[in-house]
Design a protein that fits this description.
Two copies of one chain form a homodimer. By secondary structure, chain A is an alpha/beta fold. Chain A folds into three domains: about 45 residues, 434 Repressor (Amino-terminal Domain); about 120 residues, Response regulator (Rossmann fold, 3-Layer(aba) Sandwich), CATH 3.40.50; about 130 residues, 3-Layer(aba) Sandwich (Rossmann fold). Chain A has eleven helices and twelve strands. In chain A, the strands form two sheets. Chain A has a six-stranded parallel β-sheet with strand order 2-1-3-4-5-11, with helices on both faces. In chain A, strands 7-6-8-9-10-12 form a six-stranded mixed β-sheet, sandwiched between helices. In chain A, α8 links the parallel β6 and β7. In chain A, α7 packs parallel to α8. Chain A is elongated and about 85 Å long. Chains A and B meet through α4, α5, β2 and α10 of A and α4, α5, β2, α6 and α10 of B. β2 of chain A pairs antiparallel with β2 of chain B, so a sheet runs across the interface.
């Protein structure tokens, strides 16, 4: 395989000049650029990305650490992150921490050793003060971190408020919020806060049920959902903290012969394509997942261009009405 | 940051010996191994993966090229591939070709430039004869390729047969197969073949509807599904070529007030977690997605250990009965 030296010889130029052309750095005359390009074509020279990365001390790779891959929210987010990364000349390492802090720590170290150009950490639990990442920027998604680490989240409180207001507008008077999020320190907890605020402002009776349902497949959510429907038969509107919980609730209504939306109205949270596949199709709070991905990649690019990046970005959500309300 | 030379000096050994320890190559005495380990700890030396990769001429990274990320089949497959890759000391680049041949070609080239240790190409359309990948092994998933390129698929024909046999056993006498796969050269087409064989063996009336539904979100599948139900009212059992098509069919039945499974039985194909979230929960053909991922990573490891790898692996499927039959 031809090397950069062969290209330099073929082009009749110094190796340093060829290197400047390849890295698009410093002054290069148009004629030198043309000579290098022609020499590369004649020799079928293709630069070795690894050798170039070693020289640049960074790769064109971003580490994306997620707690799940199959959950529709994360597969949608990963899909947009992958797409956006190419627009910025980057590719992604996909790393699944399964929400385990030790795994997050292991993957941050893996990213450091492989000199990624940035890290996007989704729903991370790790305490950064104990990690030494040097100059590698980290963008947190849906986790606020101390010490000025950048964070992007959706407006969770607004989402909870929109959900409650929509149910009230549709005539519901006994609301329930099923909250699968039981950690207190994360932005998603504000979904409950927004819901409660809206109910109290309107003077509507409400209840909040917190329940850690282990494993997002929610295999054991069936009995729990049925017991809720039995315990609170007066309920006429339910807001769940994500779309999969809503899907499990729809199944429970089917088993109890409760008609949706006539007898009970349901609204979820996320609005991935999944919400279009339930029966009936799900009314839900739309998260701007594409915008979150765009913002994350833009912030990493800005960091490398020495532009200031905001410590905290909160993106607005909206209501998508389908057939469960 | 300390370098390998510092470690050698600290350990009182030659750089070559330290390198042999780091790469676990050639003869190394226990005492030398111990000295290197201690010196590394004292200096807090962490090897630079990129420099090591450059020397080894390959990375510990596998390129995973998929046509979708959000489709439940692919997100499940990606999740298992990511998990299995770590067991083999590998990590993955995730690349979404969107099923576009030019993108596959671009990503194969990206993998080559970055000297991946292997490529897993899912549902690839590209003709390999025009790509120069050198020594990089490719494992194809659900695409048989000429020229001895390794392929893993599930037993699609068996799946189609199991689906038809189950519907017949449940008393269905007018079967329909909705086939969203319209390319002829791919293994999944055998789902139809198995279905047709089983119907003909049993002497049962059947119909096959081929329909390319663009975009897996199937936004415009609604009218199509309703028109099918209206056109063939005698139908009492339907097999769809994937679970999302089945979910859209369930929605159409809901709109037409057709009771599942009393009036119509439905069976899908894939059995990702998604099949547990429809209402009613979906009977489907289970693809061994975890086994496909394990097999792919094992084949890449075998290739690098100079073991022979099979050109074609077909893994058995099974029937998962839920509530649509």
């Amino acid at each position: 395989m031809p090397t950069i030296k062969d290209v330099a010889r073929e082009a009749g130029l110094a190796v340093g000049t060829v290197s400047r052309v390849l890295n698009n750095r410093g002054y290069i005359s148009d004629s030198a650029r043309k000579k290098v390009k022609e020499a590369m074509e004649r020799l079928d020279y293709q630069p070795n990305e690894m050798a170039r990365s070693l020289q640049k001390k960074t790769t064109s790779t971003i580490g994306v650490i997620v707690p799940h891959i199959e959950h529709p929210y994360f597969s949608t987010l990963i899909s947009f992150l992958e797409k956006e990364s190419h627009k910025h000349g980057q590719k992604i390492y996909l790393l699944n921490s399964m929400g385990i802090t030790d795994k997050e720590s292991e993957f941050l170290e893996l990213c450091r050793r492989n000199q990624v150009s940035g890290i996007i950490l989704c729903n991370g639990n790790i305490d950064f003060s104990e990690t030494a990442l040097g100059e590698i920027p980290i963008i947190n998604i849906e986790r606020k971190k101390e010490g000025g680490h950048a964070c992007i989240s959706c407006d969770n409180e607004m989402g909870g408020r929109l959900a409650a207001e929509h149910l009230i507008e549709q005539g519901c008077r006994n609301l329930l919020h099923i909250n699968g999020i039981t950690e207190n320190e994360i932005p998603a907890i504000d979904r409950e806060k927004g819901f409660v605020c809206a109910c109290e402002s309107a003077g509507i009776s409400y209840r909040v049920i917190k329940k850690q349902l282990y494993g997002y497949q929610l295999k054991n959510a069936d009995d729990f959902m049925i017991s809720l429907l039995e315990k609170y038969p007066e309920t006429d509107g339910i807001f769940t903290s994500d779309d999969i919980l809503a899907a499990k609730l729809i199944q429970a209504c089917y088993r109890k012969n409760i008609r949706i939306p006539d007898q009970l109205k349901i609204i979820g949270f996320d609005d991935t394509p999944f919400a279009m596949w339930t029966t009936p199709p799900l009314t839900t709070i739309h998260q701007p997942i594409q915008k979150i991905a765009e913002q994350a990649l833009q912030m990493l690019a800005d960091y490398h261009n020495n532009r200031q990046i905001p410590a905290n970005v909160v993106l607005p959500v909206s209501l998508t009405v389908r057939e469960t309300t």
